[in-house]
Amino acid sequence: MTAAIRRSPPGLPPAALADAPVTGVPQIGPNGIAWTELDPRNHGRTGVWLLPRGGQQHHRLVPEQRSVRSRVHQYGGGALWPGAGSYHWYFVDDADQSLWGIPADGGEPRLLLPGDPGTPIGDGHVSACGKRLVLLREEPARGRTTVIMLQPDAPNGIRLLDGRSSFCGAPRLSPDGRHAAWLSWKDGCMPWEHSRVHWMSLENGERMVAGDAEASLLEPRWSDNGTLYCLSDRTGAWAPARVTRAGIRPLLRSRDDMARPPWQLGNSHYALLPDGGMAAIRIRNAVCELVRISPDGETTPIPGPENDLEGLQTDGWHAICLAGTPDSSRHMLQVDMRTGERRALTSGHSVALPDARISRAEDVSVGTRRGRVYGFLYPPAPPLDGKPPPLLVRGPGGAPPQRPGRDPPGPPIGARPGRGGGLGGPPARGSAVHAPDTQFWTSNGLAVLDVNYSGSSGHGRRYRERLRGQWGRADRDDCIALAQAVAATGRADPRRMVITGSSAGGLTVLNALIRGVFRGGTSRYGVTDLELLAASTHRFEAGYLTFLLGPLPESRHTYRRRSPVHQARHLRGAVLLLQGEDDPVVPVEQARRIHTALGGANGSARLVVYPGEQHGFRQGEHLEDSYARELAFYRDLLAL
Questions:
Q1: What percent of the chain has pLDDT over 90?
Q2: What is the C-alpha separation between 45 and 90, in angstroms, rounded?
Q3: pLDDT grade for 536, boundaries at 50, 70 and 90
Q4: Alpha-carbon distance 71 to 119, whole Å?
Q5: CB contact set of 423 (below 8 Å; sequence gap of 6+)
Q6: 95, 357, 588, 610: which is deepest, by most CB within 10 A?
């Protein structure tokens, strides 16, 4: 490890980032609104909090010694859902992936389904009467994710609804409990490439499948009268559609997505209203807004300050979601969809900065040979006196609840610094929301540029498709092009630019350093050898490498040419490598190999390995230390 940090930074301290819990999406239950919170200071455990109906104060729903987390498809999500009847809430225990119910009478949680860490469960849903429960159960050894159903009051009798699909997601019951719907997709693709909706009668076993290889279908949902809806991107962007025996019928055409790629389970971007219309989240140029869709398909914005929204639910005419603004971090928000009246249900976990020191995003873009590339620029706050500031460049990362301000929140590739884990870089997106890690850098004298490079979401399907076969090239080129465009306007010093990224973003960092544009870069548990990644990554995203790079062994030359470990002699600039010792996705050996290769090339690489951490840092002391070291690295490199 490097020597101890010598001086305190003038802006936000690294401890501020480790102190802030990371909030998950809301769920509306019989007795209130509940959500998860990852707490770095509680050994990285994920707790559950409840805001009772009509209450003003939220409280813990499960003991703080317990961690609630699903590990289905590695990225998890969907570890908490509302109940009915005998149980008000259901959750998945992180340690053994067991299913628990919280009784309606307020008693202690009850074990309903013993778990097996090798067979994770999650993303459950309960019928309105509470008599039937469906959920996912992943069986990696058999190469499948199944949909199972049980009766909460007699959980030993499990019924298998789908055991033939490679992957399933989002199982949902009709309100009367007589029908079930879920998603499926094949090995070798991702659900945002193409997926299908299954419908099944639980009374007579009749089945129907809708969809084809030309569209991605997400978030099946039943209305009270038994109509089945989903989101379809057949017209070029995800928008509501009706599922019928004759196929998928779009309710409206939209150039803007109304969903994010589902790296994690359990998210929601639209919900039904009492008049048969919908509340929805529209994402235009990576900025979210709440809209109301009438029964005849007319879309009306609900103006407000929020620019980042997810986890949309409705309770009558009230929409509940996780929301953030340019000035405040994400919090629980309630909106009356008739009047637009807003009420903050929680205050969020904003960092302590005066208004003059809060940096707000500016839209930036640049034309390239692949098309226009978009991003957000955050100037340092307060601004430097008449001098262009140093610039920190970031590409999209992975993992939703772990990362405020970026999609998606979850484990493995591309999690944002200090959060989450997974291959999640593409097709995530940066947003213009107030995020503690952004304010950390800008308050310490750096401008921050979030690059939504080719393949990012928030710009429609065609933009996501631009990364096909181009990973390791398009992401690198787009980050460089936008950074140089910003510097050319005088808003950044072209001689003092650095780049940072996690997992998939680490690959972007190291490949970008070959071009000599950046003074240095930080790779957090970053990919350095693509062939090793292909051999070791988990099954959910194994097929994504075919999309990003091409099939093996035919594309082996591409994998080697875009692997930084094989290009180490060409890297220019200093490198900081931050790595978890127990990382199962990008093993520590990848970091050690690139460290050795860079040491032999120019001796400018530093490696820090954190014991007990996996793919993404969850423990507060390691989060704090990693940010402190990265800041010290830039202070020395850029003379801050």
A1: 74
A2: 18
A3: confident
A4: 9
A5: 398, 412, 413, 414, 503, 504, 537, 541, 544, 585
A6: 610
Cα 564–534–477 angle (5° rounding)?
40
- Could you give the 3-state DSSP secondary structure of residue 625? helix
Q: Order of strands, edge to edge, in the sheet holding 247-250?
A: 217-222, 228-232, 239-244, 247-250
Residues 6+ positions from 63 with CB-CB distance below 8 Å? none
What tokens does 587 get? 């093993």
- Spatial CA neighbour of 519 closest among 636, 388, 638: 638
CA 611 to chain centre: 25
What is the DSSP-derived secondary structure letter of residue 458?
Answer: S
Q: What does the DSSP assignment read for 96-135? A: T--EEEEETT----EEEE---TTS-EEEEEE-TTSS-EEE
**Tens of pLDDT along 151-180?**
999 888 899 999 999 999 999 999 999 999
Average pLDDT over residues 458-473: 91
Residue-wise pLDDT for 560-574, tens only, equals 999 999 999 999 999
Average pLDDT of span 481-495: 97
Q: How far apart are CA 156 and CA 171, in angstroms?
A: 19
Instruction: Determine the pLDDT at residue 1.
Output: 42
pTM: 0.91
- Residue 5 has what DSSP assignment? P
Q: Which of 556, 524, 307 is nearest to 402 (CA)?
A: 524
Sign of CA dihedral 629, 622, 399, 407: negative
Helices and strands in the chain: count of H runs, count of E runs: 10, 39
**Spatial distance between the Cα atoms of 102 and 50, rounded to a whole number of angstroms:** 12
